[in-house]
Amino acid sequence: MTTTEPAVDPIPVSTSAPTPTPPGILAACDGSDGSLWALDRAMTEAERYELPLYVLGVVNPSPGGYPPGMAELMQESVEQLNGSMGDGLRRAVGLVERARHRPFEGELTLHVVLGQVVEVVLAGSVGQHTLVIGTRGNGGFSRLLLGSVSTAAVHHAACPVLVVPAPPARR
Q1: How much is the average pLDDT of 150-165?
Q2: Neighbours of 150 (CB within 10 A)
Q3: Helix, strand or coil for residue 109?
């Protein structure tokens, strides 16, 4: 049996939040169109200012929490979710690079963190140069101008926030 190489370079994935040293551009990415447009802009900003790019994906396997004793049983599922999010971040980087017709030219790390999305994104913003985020992610309320994560980021992030709207043809 032969194996094939992955379609995207195997960019390493960290399971910890980006540290603020050195400060860089933090891009929140959930695989939605909005987060891909934000990732494209984050790449541009990181290259322009010669800063590292930290791409952050958040896995929240149980928004309501686990009943007693379930956390241990769910460990394998959580590990699979982390792996899937890491693969998704790699694909997102590859998609954006193909759309830009060139690879990202700078330091890039992917981070998959377990937790509540807003809390993780806000914690990740501490000490960063800029947080880049799309107007809406994978939430179900497309009629809203800003989603809950981007709204929280604008009001509570510990660094400047760049909110990237959809391209004019997509609004």
Answers
A1: 95
A2: 27
A3: strand
Q: Using one digit for the tens of pLDDT, what is the confidence trace for 97-111?
A: 999 999 999 999 999
For 112-122, the pLDDT digits (tens) are 998 899 999 99
CB atoms within 10 A of CB 86: 21
Query: What's the whole-model pTM score?
Result: 0.83
Nearest to 59 by CA among 134, 115, 121, 138: 115
Strand 53-59 vs strand 13-14: parallel, antiparallel, or unpaired? unpaired
Q: Which CATH superfamily does the domain covering 24-170 fall into?
A: HUPs (3.40.50.620)
Distances (CA, A) of 20 to 61, 104, 123: 26, 21, 10
User: What is the mean pLDDT of the segment spanning 8-22?
Assistant: 76
In DSSP notation, 118-139 reads HHHHHHHTTT-SEEEEES--S-
170 DSSP assignment: G
Query: How do the domains of the chain map onto residue ranges?
Result: 24-170
Tokens of 50: 């010669």
- The mean per-residue pLDDT over the stretch 29-47 comes to 95
Q: Which of 45, 51, 30 is nearest to 132 (CA)?
A: 45
